Amino acid sequence: MNDLRQRLTRSFSLVFPDLKAPEVYSASSSSVAAWDSMAAIILANVIEEEFRVKLDYDVLPQLLSFDLILNYLNNQLKNNNEIP
Amino acid sequence: MQFTEAIKIIRQYSSADLPLSQVRLITGFNPLHLQTFLQAHLQQRISVRRVVVSTDVYGDMTGALARIRPSLLDMCAIALEWPDLDPRLGFRQMGGWGHKELADIIGDAKAKLAAIRESLASLPDHFPLALSLPTLDLPPVFHTPSGQLCEAEIRLRHAVNELGLWAISRANIRLVRPQRQQIDADSAPAFDFKGELMAGLPYTVAHADRLAQSFAQLLAPLAPKKGLITDLDDTLWAGIAGEVGPEAVSWDLDRKTQLHGLYQQVLRALADQGVLIGAASKNDPEIVEAVFRRTDIVLPRDRVFPVEADWNAKSESVTRILDAWNVHADSVVFVDDSSSELAEVKAAHPEMECIRFDGQDYAEVHSLLYRLRDLFAKQTITQEDSLRLDSLRAGSVFREGARSRGVSNEDFLRDAEAKITFDFAAATNPRSLELVNKTNQFNLNGTRYNEAEWLDSLALPNAFAVSASYRDKYGPLGAIAVLAGQAGEKETTISTWVMSCRAFGRRIEYQCLKAILDRFSAQEIRFEFSATTRNEYLQKFAELFLGERPSGPFTISRAVFQDKCPRLYHEVEIQS
């Protein structure tokens, strides 16, 4: 989970370079001004490449914060047996 | 390129203190991925500037074209898709499909294409522009089966192709070749149906990357490589000539070795466009010559110079070929079937592009044929291109002969019957800009220009550009030097000075300065010099006048030039 969190933090930092490290964990679409619909798609693409998962357009509206994305990834990767 | 990599490249340059390169991307759809990839691909090619790709309101192709301000931009990329011609040719609007709509759709598309053409025609002919005609499939708008081409679709495609045909005739417009994607073995689908409906993103990420790469290739072409050194056994031909004999090596369909014949065919075409082709082989030279004497060889012996066949390390042969060509390793491609030979050459010449020819992997060789064309691609083939090999061969033969006969360099220059022609109306000759952008060793400062920048620099007050062409009794070298700058009353400034490495050792550089001093009656020439990692030859030339290598801009007075200039034997002709 920690590794997952670190990798997700790197993805966030790449898409939102102005976000300081501690702010990433509490980042959400309402707290980060740059997190608009286009940034959400960019973030999804970066996460897809980092974690080799598919973030479908259907689920993007639900993934509105760092924690929500982390939980989603955790469940996805567990289902794919990629996390013990 | 991965999307993450593209973002990293952009971030890396986002705060760089570099001059900007302003690029406009025009699409009728959400350009998100295409914009990101285009910026990244261009940034990789234009590392001395910070590339900024801006977009206009999407969904309004003709309006966006009309709003292009070339004076504020460096270049423009336009990705046209079917819905830009009529919204009914897309999936996001429901204006109706079927035979009742077709005549109207075609009429609207033709009108839209005419408007696009009018907008493009109004742009200056030095404003670089890359145009992609529709890359995605048409929706099921026709009444015929989807596997059948109907008259309406042909009319539609014909109208688009007419725009392409017109565009290609414009000096500033380059067209993307959509079939390029099919060459890639891992070609991913182009259309993202869900992305189109959910977010207005019709391109898959992979397709956006491919198209952006094509745009970048057209807008910021890399300097073409100058030479290719090929291995022979199991590369230029199938089989080991020394083992099976010169008659038994093959490159044909009958013996299932056509891959090698196709490779020869590409090399022959490259040689014909002025690319230097050399051969480096661990082989018996007589056996190699025997293979080249075969009448069915596709790449004739006279297109290959030099052929280095011996039993020494391959890198030594490669080094001798580079010396004969007087070309730097980073301008040369080496092709060999052996991974270890490739590694050995790469270790000796790290800047050389080393490519494996794997005669067992058809997909790889198929890609290689196109890759070679890309590495040596040129917009135009000039007279100088066809002269290059002959002049190198003649120069090399003479030098060898002179060395063996004990002839001095002074005798060589005196007896060469050399003639230099200076053309002061060379500014718009494509060869001038080509020379400026690909010359490294004798280059005043390494500055590269796109066509618009070049023309802008020549629009400055009292600006000049002059090219020098050379010939001697061994043959013509063609246009081999370009100088550009601004003439002043007391001092003439040279901001660009390049000379082809083929012209070294003939005192042409002295004659160039003499021509400038004579033409503008200046007492001094100021050189906007900047050291590069490659312009050592020019630095040494400057040292002859300055007494030391220059570290920045320097000046040479008429008196110093006259004092240091050696005897010149050329006949000189001044044009314009």
How are the SSEs placed, and which strands pair?
The complex is a heterodimer of chains A (84) and B (576).
Chain A: H1 2-15, H2 21-25, H3 37-51, H4 66-79
Chain B: H1 3-14, E1 20-27, H2 32-45, E2 50-55, H3 61-66, E3 75-79, H4 82-85, H5 99-121, E4 129-132, H6 151-168, E5 173-175, H7 193-199, H8 205-219, E6 227-230, H9 241-244, H10 258-272, E7 276-282, H11 285-292, E8 307-310, H12 314-325, E9 332-336, H13 339-348, E10 353-356, H14 362-375, H15 383-405, H16 409-415, E11 419-423, H17 430-438, H18 451-458, E12 463-472, E13 475-486, E14 491-499, H19 508-520, E15 524-527, H20 536-546, E16 554-557, H21 558-564, E17 571-575
Parallel strand pairs in B: 1-2, 1-3, 3-4, 4-5, 6-7, 6-9, 7-8, 9-10, 11-17, 14-15
Antiparallel strand pairs in B: 11-12, 12-13, 13-14, 15-16
Helix pairs in contact in B: 1-2, 2-8, 5-6, 10-14, 12-13
Structure, explained:
The complex is a heterodimer of chains A (84) and B (576). Chain A is an all-alpha fold and 84 residues long. Chain A has helices at residues 2-15, 21-25, 37-51, 66-79. In chain A, α1 (2-15) packs across α3 and α1 packs across α4 (66-79). The longest helix of chain A has 15 residues, at 37-51. Chain B has 576 residues and is an alpha/beta fold. In chain B, the strands form 3 sheets. In chain B, strands 16-15-14-13-12-11-17 form a 7-stranded mixed beta sheet, with helices on both faces. In chain B, strands 2-1-3-4-5 form a 5-stranded parallel beta sheet, with helices on both faces. In chain B, α1 (3-14) packs across α2 (32-45), α2 runs parallel beside α8 and α10 (258-272) runs parallel beside α14 (362-375). The radius of gyration of chain B is 27 Å and the shape is globular. The mean pLDDT of chain B is 90. Chains A and B meet through α1 and α3 of A and α1, α2 and α7 of B.
